[in-house]
Amino acid sequence: MIKKWEVLERKTVLKDKWIDIEASKCRLSDGTVIEPFYVNHIPDFAVIVPVTEEGKIVLVRQYRHGVEEVLLELPAGCMEPGEEPEVSAHRELSEETGYTGGAWKFLFKLCPDASKSSNYAWCFVAEGVKKTQGQHLDETEELEIVEMTIPEVRKALREGKFVQAVHTAVLYAFICECE
């Protein structure tokens, strides 16, 4: 039977408002000690599949410095400390796109990188959203809003136009539910 590792020691090696990197000393069930094993403690985040009353999926295009590319994505963003996932999802959709309302449904939560990170992605669908206001972006955000039909999203998925793993998984799950 596979067992959890025994944590012998933990220490924070880097901490700021975006990331908290911990170095752990761990013992495996066979007695092997791993040191250091790094874990990224970053905030949970919400990911939303917003669908307009006309059946279009609201997406965003934005620059991601980690891969140094402009990516096509779902609206998403970090949860504030103590914030409930659905509250975060509503806030992020409104801020990033100006779309609000609709019937909301929780899909699932995912571990974006369970081997190295402790956070979760909380994934939602919002059907029947409407553009009710302008964007309210953070000072570091620059996003372009893109609306696509479900067939267009399906084609973009097949062509590899979505490269964020969580976003791709959520879109495939949503499309499977639509069929």
Automatic annotation (TrEMBL):
InterPro entries: NUDIX_hydrolase-like_dom_sf, NUDIX_hydrolase_dom. Residues 40-170 form the Nudix hydrolase domain. Keywords: Hydrolase. Its cofactor is Mg(2+). GO terms for molecular function: hydrolase activity. It comes from the Bacteria. GO terms for biological process: nucleoside phosphate metabolic process; ribose phosphate metabolic process. One of its GO terms (cellular component) is cytosol. PANTHER family: NUDIX HYDROLASE DOMAIN-CONTAINING PROTEIN, UDP/ADP-SUGAR PYROPHOSPHATASE. This is NUDIX hydrolase.
